Amino acid sequence: MPVADPGTPDARSPIRYLWWVARVQKWPLLVGIGLAILWWLAQALVPAALGRAIDALADGRTNVLVEWSAAIFGLGVIQAVTGVLRHRFAVLTWLGASYRTVQVTTRQATRLGATLPKRLSTGEVVSVGNSDIAHIGNAMEILLRGTGAFVAVATVTVILLSTSPPLGLVVLIGVPLMVGAVGPLLRPLHNRQHAQRDLQGDLATRASDIVGGLRVLRGIGGEELFSARYREESQKVRRAGVRVASVESALEGAQILLPGVLIAAVTWLGAHFALDGRISPGQLVAFYAYAAFLIAPLRTLTEAADRVTKGHVAARRVCRILSLDPEIQGGTATLPADAASDVLRDGESGVTVRPGRLTALVTAVPEEAAAITDRLGRYAPGEVTLGGVSLDELPIDEVRRHILVADNAARLFTGRLRDELDVRGTATDDDVRLALHAACADDIVESLPDGLDAHVAEAGREFSGGQQQRLRLARALAADPDVLVLIEPTSAVDAHTEARIADRIGAARAGRTTLVCTTSPLVLDRADLVLFVEDGKVRAEGAHRELLQAEPGYSATVTRGEG
């Protein structure tokens, strides 16, 4: 079922975050707790009703026996109904907590943008989706059963106190002692789980790096070295897991041993009281039934301590992500209607992208092009204006809506190819086909059995490097932004395809503002204007053939790129 927008979480501490998760789904949680209490109480009252029925049978009171038998049947019906409903609300609470965490972390990742990979490793982010959301969901789900278990133990204690004060006192004193005995295990469990999660995040990062660079590793023969490093880190995770398991095994043992000791004491006292005639046969049977019943709620209470501890550790990692702020903050100004198609200028380098023209940018050092495009796209601070309005005064969303920077680090995602190419959902089929034609990617789609309805695998791994680059270019063209910045859009294709793309980009972007960062003579020769940047400043501008003759630095850069 769809989960509503969760709003802004309180990420100042793990406890506050868990409290926020509980608060935003308070009604399913409260209804589930109510059903859990009824479910546990229906079970807790069965031994008392059974004892009364046995006493009625011993005294020969048939009508009373029938009444208590009916009461036992009614309690069974209540257990069945509330048990099913409680489970449904428990699952709803688990899913709500888990997927609200997915929502807020995904929204935060989108808000952080390029800041996220700079501040956190891939493995640390991946581990949130792999395990932390489940632990947060478990922490919420256990509130239902844990609250009901506490009420059930309290009810049984009251019944035992009213029937036999010594037995009631044993339970009343024993339960806090049992919980207190588990307490010393929670802190080392908390610390060891936190250390293991950090190591798991590092290992996931290492695995991601190896998979992403596997082709390079095979080319340079580095598989054994990285395999040894991965094996070393995986052993660290294993040893950390063993340390966690040692505490968890002690906790699991305590969940059985401590309730067992308490129940054995209650049973032993109850048997002696029955022999002394201080309680009736029915009460003795009830005490034995209570002894068996108490195992479940007492174990649930110790399980609650374990799950809440794991949820706290998971919430700490989520809070670490939610507490980050983007490096680039947006303003509150509004861009005039006609400014989006005006001049885009980088004051630091002097690069000026004129409206309605195909401009090419050549830099002596590739890093200079990356720095300029980062400033033009507002991914790095800079003195950039669009139509005379400074980009740092505009909201980030508005900048992204008007200026699109497409580089070769962009990924293809899993899903239908049609949706992958039209990420904004506004392009018609004709728009998509025109974008594919301009990127010389029609043959890719035609070769797929399902065409645009074909399923794209993770990272588009079924496509070659050149095919991926052409599909990324088609996606950028289909978005049709006011200003499109392309970074080396033809670096992975052959010369024949590159020439066709160079011819078609200008036609596809006619009337729109386009900047292409490249050293390809085929593309440069078709640009309306070429800018040459050296040492971070524009040194020359003009047509490609003119600059080849007039600017030695430009000629050396382009010739090196051609060679």
Short summary:
The protein is α/β, with parallel strands linked by helices and 563 residues long.
Shape designation: elongated
Contiguous uncertain segments of 5+ residues: none
Helical content stands at 55-70%
What strand order characterises the main sheet?
6-9-10-3-11-12
Largest β-sheet summary: 6 strands, mixed
Q: What is the radius of gyration computed over CA atoms, rounded to a whole number of angstroms? A: 34 Å
Mean pLDDT: 83
Helix/strand class: alpha/beta
* Number of helical stretches of at least 4 residues: 20
Percent range for β-strand residues? 5-15%
Distance between the termini: 57 Å
Number of strands: 12
Protein name: ABC transporter
Subcellular location: Cell membrane
GO molecular function: ABC-type oligopeptide transporter activity; ATP binding; ATP hydrolysis activity
Transmembrane segments: 27-46, 66-85, 142-161, 167-186, 256-275, 281-301
Keywords:
563 residues; alpha/beta; six-stranded mixed beta sheet; four-stranded antiparallel beta sheet; 20 helices; elongated
How are the SSEs placed, and which strands pair?
Layout: H1 14-24, H2 26-58, H3 62-112, H4 115-119, H5 122-163, H6 165-212, H7 214-220, H8 223-275, H9 281-293, H10 295-322, E1 344-346, E2 352-353, E3 358-363, H11 366-376, E4 384-386, E5 389-390, H12 396-402, E6 403-406, E7 415-416, H13 417-421, H14 429-438, H15 442-447, E8 455-456, H16 465-479, E9 483-487, H17 495-508, E10 513-517, H18 521-524, E11 529-534, E12 537-542, H19 544-550, H20 552-562
Parallel strand pairs: 3-10, 3-11, 6-9, 9-10
Antiparallel strand pairs: 1-2, 1-4, 4-5, 7-8, 11-12
Transmembrane segments: 27-46, 66-85, 142-161, 167-186, 256-275, 281-301
Domain ABC transmembrane type-1: 30-310
Protein name: ABC transporter
